[in-house]
From TrEMBL:
Residues 34-269 form the Rhodopsin domain. Belongs to the SAT4 family. PANTHER family: INTEGRAL MEMBRANE PROTEIN, PTH11-LIKE INTEGRAL MEMBRANE PROTEIN (AFU_ORTHOLOGUE AFUA_5G11245). This is Rhodopsin domain-containing protein. Signal peptide: none annotated. The lineage of its organism: Eukaryota, Fungi, Dikarya, Ascomycota, Pezizomycotina. Keywords: Membrane, Transmembrane, Transmembrane helix. It is found in: Membrane. It is a multi-pass membrane protein. It comes from the Eukaryota. Residues 331-341 have a biased composition (Basic and acidic residues). The chain crosses the membrane at residues 18-38, 50-69, 89-117, 129-150, 170-190, 202-224, 244-264. Residues 316-341 are annotated as: Disordered.
Length: 355
């Protein structure tokens, strides 16, 4: 097989997109490293939200490597000018690209959802998280099936010299992209109702929601990627594939960064100071709860995971203990006890608060 290589920096747009994704890959790597440091400094055990995001980052490196390989094989060069062997390898990489992309995205979404399971205690919310997780798994399965079944025989995906038939690729890409977008939006919106029910200033609620709103950039990129995939010209795919390839690396990189932001709050607190994260503008004497019931700043939650078994109504009181612990310490405490079997003996302390 005679492969001809191209200069990665010869075509301006190829060079620009390579530089952008290089920066994003570095930032995503830094985000995961800081996430692990935050876990270690707080002595919080790693859980599925951490494991899935690490695997997602590892697979994103493969997407980045494929982008580089595509550029060297003739991406943004018209198909009539690309050697046949280059074209075959490019098309094979495109198949791998779709499989890895779907897996990376699914793992990043599962990381978000596992993080929610780690810190929220509301039964209805947990059920909603599990439903979204099931949809994500179904979406990943559909993406894998689409890759392997869209063309018959499968070899037609990368060998244009044989006869066969391919299904409606734009329609398949639209369906996969639409479900991907829906799950992104669902994951971002899940915590919002809980946030707005908290006893805290509206300005603080908006700030917390803003952290989740950063994920809207991922939704926008999902739309852009879906549009680039549905308009992909397979008759000149080597020239037209540049934008789908670029966005396929950009989207998961940003998703990984966004998934790590809430976990890095402790490190940010050390850098910028505690007051920047916890002080309320409207009432400095009273501390308010954050969006996470298991990571409280101002209210010490008396919510019990097994309320229905004991007939106790959920409640919370403002207490100095929660503030002194800080949200990361509260998460640490939860992490140490959440997997205890129900057969264990638990001591319940009744709180009485008088004005």
């Amino acid at each position: 097989m005679a492969i001809e290589t191209y200069d990665l920096t010869a075509i301006p747009i190829v060079k620009t997109e390579f530089v952008v994704n290089t920066i994003l890959i570095i930032l995503a790597t830094a985000a995961v490293v800081l996430r692990l440091i935050a876990r270690r400094t707080r002595r919080i055990d790693l859980w599925w939200d951490d494991y899935t995001i690490m695997i997602s980052l590892f697979l994103t490196y493969f997407l980045y490597a494929v982008q580089i390989a595509d550029a060297k094989l003739g991406m943004r060069v018209h198909i009539t000018e690309v050697p046949a062997d280059n074209l075959t390898l490019l098309l094979k990489l495109l198949v791998a690209y779709q499989l890895i992309y779907g897996t990376v995205q699914a793992l990043a979404k599962i990381s978000y959802l596992c993080f929610y399971l780690r810190i929220f205690v509301n039964d209805e919310f947990i059920k909603a998280v599990k439903i979204v997780a099931a949809i994500v798994v179904a979406w990943w399965t559909a993406n894998v099936l689409q890759v392997f079944l869209i063309c018959t025989p499968f070899k037609l995906n990368y060998d244009v010299t044989i006869t066969g038939t391919c299904g409606n690729r734009p329609a398949a890409y639209t369906a996969i992209g639409a479900i991907n977008l829906i799950t992104d939006v669902a994951i971002l919106l899940l915590p919002i109702p809980t946030v707005w029910k908290l006893q805290m200033p509206v300005s603080s609620k908006i700030g917390i929601c803003g952290v989740f709103a950063i994920g809207l950039s991922i939704c926008i990129i999902s739309i852009i990627r879906m549009q680039s995939m549905t308009t992909l010209d397979f008759n000149d795919i080597t020239y037209d594939m540049i934008n789908p390839v670029f966005w396929t690396v950009t989207e998961p990189s940003l998703a990984i960064i966004n998934a790590c932001l809430p976990v890095m709050r402790h490190l940010m607190k050390l850098v910028f100071g505690k007051k920047a994260w916890f002080r309320s503008k409207s009432d400095t004497s009273r501390q308010y709860s954050t969006t996470f019931e298991r990571m409280q700043d101002g209210e010490y939650p008396l919510t019990n995971l097994h309320d229905r078994e004991r007939g106790i109504t959920s409640s919370s009181v403002a207490a100095k203990k929660a503030y002194s612990m800080g949200e990361d310490e509260s998460e640490k405490s939860y992490d140490e006890t959440k997997h205890e079997p129900r057969s264990n003996i638990h001591v319940t302390t009744a709180w009485v608060v008088s004005e």
